[in-house]
């Protein structure tokens, strides 16, 4: 029995996040001219964070896609615009299924997913990152709240410098079950940034 999409996503994203953390450690130690020494505790903390966050984001992407399905295919548009009768057109009028007169366009759905990713998704992921990474370091809730207040703005600004491009690609060409992995792959640099934030 093949592994589920979530299992595959979890494994791949966790590996990518581990690579991000190791790269961040290399950068951090190179700045101080120290010989490289792997900080195993920091690596475990960051990987644990990834294991927790990936299923949440996986479910989020599926939910958003269910609410705002992706672009209609060219084939579907062609079929809808053609004069050829569909299967339902051959039924008597009283037996035809009800169809909505107005459906949301693919562009509208893309816009909604894009906006949700930049706002709700961004806020949730940043807050969850600060909370989880500092809980894993053993910090108390009072200090974690202070860090959220201090660091949310700078992290959000940094996120907005690269995430819109990732989102545009993610919601136009990437299948829903591959979006978290795609985001992790594109976000290796972002993972380095988060690792450096976490003081690897």
TrEMBL record:
Signal peptide: none annotated. Keywords: Membrane, Transmembrane, Transmembrane helix. InterPro entries: Mpv17_PMP22. The keyword Transmembrane applies. It is found in: Membrane. The chain crosses the membrane at residues 6-24, 36-58, 114-136, 180-199. Coiled coil: none annotated. Pfam families: Mpv17_PMP22. Belongs to the peroxisomal membrane protein PXMP2/4 family. This is Mpv17/PMP22 family protein.
